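>> Question from a student workshop board

For tomorrow's exercise we were told to take the sequence and the ligand below, predict the bound structure, and bring the output to class. My setup keeps failing. Could a helper post the expected result so I can at least see what it should look like? The ligand is LQXTBERG.
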Amino acid sequence: MSDVSRPSPAEARAEARTAVVIPAAGRGVRLGPGAPKALRALNGTPMLVHAVRAMAASRAVSLVVVVAPPDGAGEVKSLLDAHALPERTDFLVVPGGDSRQESVRLGLDALPPDFGIVLVHDAARPLVPVDTVDAVIEAVREGAPAVVPALPLADTVKEVDPATAPGEPEPVVATPVRARLRAVQTPQGFDRSTLIRAHESVTEDVTDDASMVEQLGLTVMVVPGHEEAFKVTRPLDLVLAEAVLARRRLNDGF
Ligand SMILES: Nc1ccn([C@@H]2O[C@H](COP(=O)(O)OP(=O)(O)OP(=O)(O)O)[C@@H](O)[C@H]2O)c(=O)n1
Ligand SMILES: C[C@](O)(CO)[C@H](O)COP(=O)(O)O
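>> Workshop helper replied:
Here is what the output should look like for this input. Compare the format with yours to find the bug.
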């Protein structure tokens, strides 16, 4: 006999609490020498603090798990303690691993049981607007097992021969139809048990969490991303990020 008082999976998802895992353990090799990327300053405030504030700006988010550089959990904790963060959000800091995938898994391991929806957000995308965060959460609440924010591409993309020797011109082997491609951002949102299953079953290195869910045979849904959710990867991205912050300050009348 069915238990009429027990919520259906869809009802449970609609009610579920949301936590965010922020992988912040990378070195930032492409950014050049310096402190770990997440700890570098953007207009005087560490990139990680911007990213944490961007997640905590959503009223739906009640826990943020920051995955710190393996030997830097203490430093990251002190950093978060020293900056004003919304009181309605709890914070946990755990040490990360050698790859983004391992760092996310360590963050998932630290999640308390009572969170049914999990977002994974790069510390390296510090400026994502709250509307994008909320759109991802809403789509998971509505039943998608995995949701990614994404934008259409501005450039044409070529696939090249992977066997080309380093430094040699690369023969083009294909030109995918651009209109069907999307550049994927974070936060990516998941039904918690689906994301955990994906991390348990996919062992090869992948570049995002949603592709692990695709490997389970489930459909990942795309919602509109935002230009300001770009990833700080190379030195020019720092210039752009500071320009975006300056424009925001101007618009806010500071
Ligand atoms: N071992 C790792 C590697 C990456 N990340 C995080 O994953 C996000 C996206 O990674 P990326 O932009 O590639 O950062 P880095 O690995 O630091 O950059 P790079 O590849 O240039 O070294 C970043 O927030 C980064 O801190 C992580 O938590 N643990
Ligand atoms: C997850 C991600 O930001 C989606 O675009 C991206 O794949 C991370 O890649 P990275 O090389 O680890 O920065």
